[in-house]
Amino acid sequence: MDFAQQQRNPSRHLTSIGIVVLMHLLLGYALVSGLARKVVEVIKQPIETKIIEEVKTPPPPPENLPPPPKMAPPPPSFVPPPEVVVQAPPQNAPTITTTQVRPVEQAVRVAPPPGPPAPPAPPARVAPALNFNACEKPEYTTAARRAEAQGTVVVIYTMETDGRITEASVEKSSGPTREHKQLDRATLEAVKACKGRPGMVDGKPERLSGRVEYVWKLVD
Questions:
Q1: Top-tier CATH class for 125-216
Q2: Cα–Cα distance measured from residue 153 to residue 191, given in angstroms and rounded to the nearest whole number
């Protein structure tokens, strides 16, 4: 018979089941009858332990021991010397002398309030120069010579930075007649055709105005 057939045998299974049921019955009886409680009480009882100490006998005293050393007497206690109070000789209190000093009169000078600031210096101007003698001179007209017109003409002109005359006008006429007016026009044309040295402002050439006089006089 092999192992598989033994396992399929119903009599073997019934025997095992019966043993298990019997063990359960015995355990239930023990619980009901109090046997298990007695076993627990016996286990729970305390266990007493005692420690027995060994009695030691004192050793015998040693023989021929040297005598104990002699201790030196303690030093005497320190007694402080008595305090001697020495009184210092009385000193004269210092005298305080006071001298009266007359106050020194100091002259206090009050500076005057500052005045208004000085105006800036005007720029340095140099008037233009027109050398009329170096230019072409005007000539008498026939009518003015015949009328013997004479006089001084004052002309105001404006010179550019290159020396050219761009504007000119008569400030003072040479006379009241028609022939004098001819002399004034001749003077203006001569001034406009002339060139000179331009005026300067702070060292730089500027367009400025000038004045020139021309005297008309007949020469025999």
A1: alpha beta
A2: 11
Q: Identify the three-state secondary structure at position 132.
A: helix
Q: Is 150 exposed, middle or buried (0-12, 13-18, 19+ CB in 10 A)?
A: middle
User: Is the CB of residue 205 less than 8 Å from the CB of residue 198?
Assistant: yes
Helix axes 35-44, 10-33, angle to 10 degrees: 60
pLDDT (tens digit per residue) in 176-194: 999 999 999 999 999 999 9
* CA dist., res. 105 & res. 12, Å (int): 150
Nearest to 133, CA basis, from 203, 211, 212, 73? 212
Confirm whether pTM is higher than 0.85.
no
Q: What type of residue sits at position 209? A: S
